[in-house]
Amino acid sequence: MYNQDQQPPWGKKHKPQTPEEVVAQIINKLQDFFSGKKPPSPTGDNQSPSEPLSPFANAGKLLAIILIVFVVQGVYSSFFKIAPSEVGVILRLGQYSRTTPSGLHFKIPYIDKLYKVDVENIRKEEFGFRSRSQGGQQGIVEKRGYDMESLMLTADKNVINVAWIVQYKVGDPYSFLFKVKDISRAIRDMSESVTRRIVGNMDFDYVLSNRDLLAASVKTELQSQLDGLFPKGMTGVSIGTVQFQDINPPDQVKPAFNEVNEADQDMKRLVNEAQETYNRVIPKAAGDAKKIIEESYGYQAQRINDSQGETQRFLDILKEYKAAPDVTRKRMYLETMSEILPGVQSVYVIDKDQQSPLPLLNITSASRLPAVLAPGSK
Asked: From CA 132, how far away is CA 141, in angstroms rounded?
């Protein structure tokens, strides 16, 4: 056995090198290669070359190295990765070849050219304001200096300040990249034109109270304009949302606008109160009048029916009386007495031969007065 600290019999023992040392060795070898120096002999003799080196002596070696680098770079660039939210557009010799989804793919080096497009990101254009972040805080809105974008004229010749956002996504990556030079500027110009035209056809009050309807109209019209200005799908974008952030009169006319608005609100309040009184009084009066008319019709029908019934009853009794006068007379007497006597509290029976009335015992009701028998009663 030999000591590990001693040199081995077959040569010098090499220790592990650091990356810096490896790079330094490679650079030294390249310098020696291009300078034409030969590595030192094992005996340590440094012999100078017998002939001077020509400037083109190492041209073949340089071309070989360039070719190797060219091949290595081509192999390395043949594979590419597309993120989940992106797609890749491949051009082959300047012409469209294909669109690749997310994942690992292969392309022909130095012939195919790759463009990555984020199709999931929602892009937006702001009008009348700009959103800024300061100190890590979001939602800081800057409106100063953007009045030319937001000031518009309504159909009733009033000036209004409109701030809105247009959100869109990439629909066709190839058209988005190559068909329109500046799609952002195109969307801004067309959105401002469409919004001004739609607001200009509406009254001031209608614009203030119909924000959602206005946004839907702008979205539909803007998408139609983008699809109609170029061949179908050439813009490569799809409008997602149009949101109106702020719709107000300009600061210079806000006091006058508030006064007009207050007067308009007072007028509407008075009209509503008058309408409420009208709705409460007029229908009640109409109902009462109709009730009286219907009651008069009912009273009329009742009196006519009663009269007709009494007339028919009288005719029927007259007919029976003519047939049997005594029986009919007695029946009429009994029917009349049966209706009258239940309500009589005192009964007097008069006898023509009796000189003084005789009391009769009332056994039907304790509250009734005692009946008396008068003279001459039977």
From this structure: 6
Judge if 269 and 225 occupy the same domain: no
**Domain, as residue range, for 319:** 251-342
- Burial of 133 per CB tally in 10 Å (0-12, 13-18, 19+): exposed
At 290, the pLDDT band (50, 70, 90 cuts) reads very high
Check residues 225 and 220 and name the one with the higher pLDDT. Answer: 220
Q: Give yes or no for residue 195 having a pLDDT over 50.
A: yes
pLDDT digits (tens, 9 = 90+) for 142-168: 888 788 888 898 998 888 889 999 999
Task: List Cβ neighbours of 103 (8 Å cut-off, separation of 6 or more).
Answer: 81, 82
Encode burial over 191-212: b for 16+ CB neighbours within 10 A, e otherwise. Answer: bbebbeebbeebebeebbeebe
Question: Is the pLDDT at 378 greater than 70, yes or no?
Answer: no
Best CA proximity match to 36, nearest among 2, 3, 59, 65 = 59
**For 109-133, what is the mean pLDDT?**
88
Distance of CA 324 to the CA centre of its chain: 93
Q: With the CA atoms of 192, 196, 198 and 199 taken in that order, what torsion angle do they form, in degrees rounded to the nearest 10?
A: 130
pLDDT for the residue 308: 92
Q: What is the DSSP letter of 251?
A: G
AA letter at 356 = S
**Continuous segment of H or E residues that includes residue 73:** helix 59-77
Whole-number mean pLDDT of the chain? 79
Contacts of 146 (CB under 8 A, 6+ apart): 127, 128, 129, 130
Mean pLDDT calculated for residue range 63-75: 77
**Residue 84 to residue 120: CA distance in whole angstroms:** 9
How many structural domains compose the chain?
Answer: 4
- Of the residues 228, 249, 270, which one is the last residue of a structural domain? 249
Rg of the chain, C-alpha, whole Å: 57
**Burial zone of 218 (CB within 10 Å; 0-12 exposed, 13-18 middle, 19+ buried):** buried
Q: Based on the domain organization, do 75 and 94 belong to the same domain?
A: yes
